[in-house]
Description:
By secondary structure, the protein is an alpha+beta fold. The chain contains twelve helices and six strands.
Amino acid sequence: MKFTPLTILALPVLLSCCVTYKSRPISAEKTSADFAERSLNDAGLRSFLAEQKASGGTWNVDRLSLAAAYFHPDVTLARAEAEEAAAAIKTANMRPNPVFTFSPQYASFRAPAPTPWFFGPSISIPIETAGKRSKRAEQALATAEAARWRVSARAWAARSRVRTAMLELHSARENIRLLETEQTLHDEAIKKLTAQMDAGDVSPFELTQARLMLNRTRLALQDAQRIAATGEARLASAIGVPLPALQKITLDFAAFRRLPDPDNSRRRALTQRADLMALLAEYAASESALKLELAKQYPDVNIGPGYDYNSGQNRWQLGLNLPIPLHQNRGPIAQAEAKRSTAEKKFLAQQATIQGELDIALAGYNASRAKATTAATLAQEAADASSTTKRMVEAGQVSALELTRRQIETSTANVALLAARIEAQTAAGALEDAMQATLR
């Protein structure tokens, strides 16, 4: 048997079509240095923000959340998993390769023979039946869709962490501002009380009470300063950038100065939340897997054309390989049905969980908003009382110490108002997480 020039030339062509290995080593030192060099002015981030139509504006919750979706390792890992699932679609669409068999034999003849060699090249061509390839592709597509939805779910989780860290930092900074004012007022009150006590107008008890209030304010101020000191680092970690990268920008906390009405997003949350859609895609994948196992009841066919050269004779063959389906693939079918049932229960369980989260979050947000409204009323009443007392001091009707006391009451009411508003903003964040949508 002779090899033709065409056969010899075909071998390197086939080999040249092979995918070659490309080394991509990882160095802990390099990855650490790369992280330290991250910046919110990164060219890749700018392109990503432009794609999301958020290239301009201040660094508010929304823009920093997009930066977290770009940088944070949880989201980048989810994107890598989605790319892995998408690559499986190509595998699912591939047809099985034919198999070439070549088994030459040598026989020693006593009598003269045309040739002692026997050649028997053959090729086995598998043919999938019952649409197995299309069903396999359906399963891969649904799995890839679930992976894409998990990217969205991880991105929302990143946004939730960014919002929580920003709210904590905003609360600490505002508390510092208010408590510093209150501390100054307490110092002023103590000076006036000391002078009056020396004159015999007030008792030492009043001075002691004023000092206790000052000490409480100082401790609260130190707590706020501690939270502010760690808040920036916590926010940088939530975004996925080093602290110096965050310190180079100006943060916009305007979103925390309003409490929007809860919109009617219940239906959207129960039908379009990212984690719910991922489970729905996983159910579709389990359905396709079941259809694939049902199709496997029908055996694939292997056609084997061949050629045999024996003792000077040329013989052509055509073989047919057909497995006998004795068990009708009943075991894998039952397993696929059970997996589909499990996927259905997971979807229904998550939908019920979301329903409960929505009810709890909505009730908490409405109650917190009502509390913030009451705190705003009390703060306004304290401010009005302070203004009235100031006019009375100017008219000589009351002492300056009484004005300082009213101002302390106003400052305390403002601190309480801030706490109520932060509580309401925290509840708003819980409601947004339940809906996986922002309140507008």
